[in-house]
Specification:
Length: about 575
């Protein structure tokens, strides 16, 4: 268990002062706003939409992003993660959106967003069946792939690629000033000032841009002060043509990629938002997926592009030390306000690209570290190492296949381009496929199912002996397996309805045996037992977790997962005998 207290000033449930909450809300919202504005600009530059439609898409995207972010933070029942997860226009939908608008206009995009919305909600509904596939290891790989995908874009923005000043010394200087100022704040500033490192880095870059004459306010001066371009609102339409269904397929693929990204972000934000993080709350992950589905439904209603979670603010949490959901709520409110004040969106659009690119570059590097830490915390073994290496490097290769000059690129079917050309999509698919293969691989399994009653204890003990005999465990590992299984089953039957059924499954590989107990109850956390400070003076109630202490000492690892009321408690026993040493503390 890893302590995060010393660097976390405000955890998810703590309310920081108004100035900090609002300021950080704006700071994080800038990452989302830049993405929400980028797509309409690209569509307008390609002459696929009018200026009025571009203004409408910007306002509708900001409104959708603000509402979706608020839903994530507030957690309405099973909808929302309860954490500071910012939502915004997803880059994975860019290519499909271009094709959809070229084919049938904005109304077709709205229809596709409504069709995509139930996908994540369905996955969330049956998430417990995917618990062994969408693991923290896979989530960490996805977060790392997000950084790999977006970092090159931030470098291009820093260098001004696509502008008249591409590669100029001035642009390099502007971005360099922003990066140096931000890094200096992170490294040298006290904790209470470090939280403003992104906004101060951006400010330093803006000053450098103003000095060099590369900061203008053309968009802000042309934008209206107040208004919402409601006249461009179109009804969802779906043309019945082969091309339309091809675009739908691309949208489905993009939705799955966004689903994997949301899972990764929902896992990563938990690890950096709690002072004493113990284990993943998969109900929160399910809530994040439900909120993502609601966000896509809102995008369809407001006739704009689908959205997903934004990873950049997650990478900044360990640096700024603030993970409060109030930051998310303030950021959500600011995006909603900006949707009705086009001049504010114009001001953000006028921010110097090199400064924005430099600050985003640092934030994405920090996000990569969060993803890597998620992978390491999940544990490294032969299987997880294969998932990480093939998933990450497969995504990296797909993202930069053209630059690497790989000969097989030209032979890839065009229909697979949304997957093979995007590190997030390809890395996610590879990691999920390998994880699925490991789950489905033929294994020798032992099953037991019976009543959650002490009367079943003898059957459970006999089951443990059958497992040890079937897997040919030596005396030491066999004894540890039997003791762990007995203590865990005893703990489970003490909670919940006595008429319920408990299921036990045991599998093995060449190094270890894993036992999983599945139960539908309110069983307390097994991973962190309560031990009284004075055992001699403790009463029977205070001593009830001593069996769990034995479990956590004898097993190689213990994991407790709760999903939608279902408890999955597992422990691993090494096949080789391991001496248990008790160290007496002075």
């Amino acid at each position: 268990m890893q302590e995060r207290g010393p660097t976390l000033r405000y955890a998810v449930n703590e309310r920081p002062p108004l100035f900090i909450a609002a300021g950080l809300g704006l700071q994080n919202a800038l990452f989302v706003i830049s993405g929400a504005i980028l797509l309409p600009i690209l569509l307008r530059a390609a002459d696929l939409i009018t200026a009025g439609e571009a203004a409408f898409l910007i306002s509708a995207s900001l409104l959708t992003a603000g509402l979706s972010t608020a839903v994530q933070a507030l957690r309405f029942g099973a909808v929302g993660s309860g954490f500071m997860l910012f939502m915004g226009t997803s880059g994975t939908f860019f290519a499909a959106t271009f094709d959809a608008i070229a084919l049938a206009g904005i109304g077709f995009v709205a229809a596709l967003a409504l069709i995509a919305a139930p996908t994540e909600i369905l996955i969330a509904q049956f998430f417990r069946f995917f618990r062994n596939v969408l693991t923290p290891t896979v989530g960490g790989v996805v977060v790392m792939c997000v950084a790999v995908t977006v970092v090159p874009l931030t470098i291009k923005q820093w260098n001004g690629v696509g502008t008249d000043h591409a590669g100029s010394l001035e642009y390099m200087l502007i971005g360099g000033v922003a990066v140096l100022a931000m890094v200096a704040m992170i490294v040298l500033a006290p904790a209470r000032y470090r939280l403003w490192s992104p906004i101060l880095g951006l400010a330093a870059g803006c000053i450098a841009a103003a000095i060099t004459g590369h900061w203008s306010f053309n968009h802000a001066s042309d934008a209206a002060i107040l208004g919402f371009p409601i006249g461009e609102w179109e009804a969802p339409t779906f043309p019945t043509s082969g091309a339309a269904f091809a675009v739908l397929g691309a949208f489905v693929i993009a939705t799955l990629a966004g689903t994997f990204e949301t899972v990764g972000d929902a896992i990563a934000i938990q690890k950096v938002s709690l002072r004493n993080f113990r284990r993943i709350d998969y109900d929160s992950v399910r809530g994040a997926l439900n909120a993502d589905g609601v966000g896509n439904a809102l995008a369809g209603i407001f006739c704009t592009t689908p959205n997903t979670t934004y990873s950049s603010p997650i990478g900044m949490v360990p640096v700024v030390g603030v993970a409060s959901r109030w930051v998310g709520l303030w950021g959500a409110g600011l995006m909603i306000v900006m949707a009705f004040f086009p001049i504010l969106g114009g001001f953000v659009l006028d921010l110097p690209g090199p400064a924005v690119g430099g600050v985003s570059f640092v934030a994405l590097l920090l996000l990569f570290i969060v993803g890597m830490q998620t992978v390491v915390d999940a544990g490294i073994n032969t299987r997880t190492a294969l998932i990480v290496s093939l998933g990450f490097w497969g995504g990296f290769t797909g993202e930069f296949a053209d630059e690497l000059g790989l000969p097989f690129v030209e032979h890839i079917p065009e229909a697979l381009a949304p997957i093979t050309g995007n590190a997030i999509a390809l890395g996610s698919v590879i990691a999920v496929l390998i994880s699925t293969i490991f789950v489905l691989m033929p294994k020798r399994r032992y099953h037991w199912q019976g009543a959650a009653s002490t009367d079943s204890l003898d059957q459970v003990i006999a089951f443990g002996k059958d497992v040890s005999s079937g897997f040919r465990l030596e005396t030491g590992p066999a004894n540890r397996l039997g003791l762990c299984l007995e203590e865990l089953f005893t703990h489970v039957v003490e909670n919940g309805d006595p008429d319920r059924t408990v299921r036990i499954e045991a599998t093995a590989n060449e190094d270890e045996v894993e036992v999983v107990v599945t139960d539908r109850s309110d069983v307390r956390d097994v991973e962190v037992p309560n031990v009284p400070p004075d055992l001699l003076a403790a009463d029977s109630d205070e001593l009830q977790d001593l069996g769990l202490v034995l479990l956590t000492r004898l097993a190689t690892s213990v994991n407790h997962t709760s999903i939608a009321g279902w408890q999955y408690v597992s422990f691993v026993i090494a096949r080789q005998y391991r001496e248990i040493r008790v160290v007496q503390q002075q």
